[in-house]
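Exercise 3.2. Students should predict the tertiary structure of the chain below and write it as structure tokens, then compare their answer with the key that follows.

Predict this chain's 3D structure.
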Amino acid sequence: YYYIPSPPIGLAGIVVEPTEDLHRLQDELITAVKRYTVNTGTPAAFFSEEGGRDIQQSLIDYVANFVTIAAGEHFNPHVTIGVGTETDLNQMLAEPFDSFTFSATGASVYQLGTFGRARKELKALLLTP
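Answer key:
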């Protein structure tokens, strides 16, 4: 478990062990989308039902700087599990957490919304075993 504070709330997630395959996948994805990237965007680049007023500047900055701050040696694969109050999230962190194994059966590309949530599906891909 972890959470990113944005008092009085926070964005919670579960950390995924970064394997060589995940690092390679991230590198390949960054290379594949490079020609579509721009230096920065505006709230209009994100999914919003509030005309962009619900899009945090920290999210815009995170996306604009993703390759520098969250790729390569800074890669932190994770599954975002929701938003909660810091009180509830601190209680969650204090409780035991048993690790578990999972595998993907598909992958999707989404337009991000508030707090980086996957809001609008753009493309879904089914993986074959």
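Discussion points: The mean pLDDT is 93. The first strand starts at residue 2 and ends at 6.
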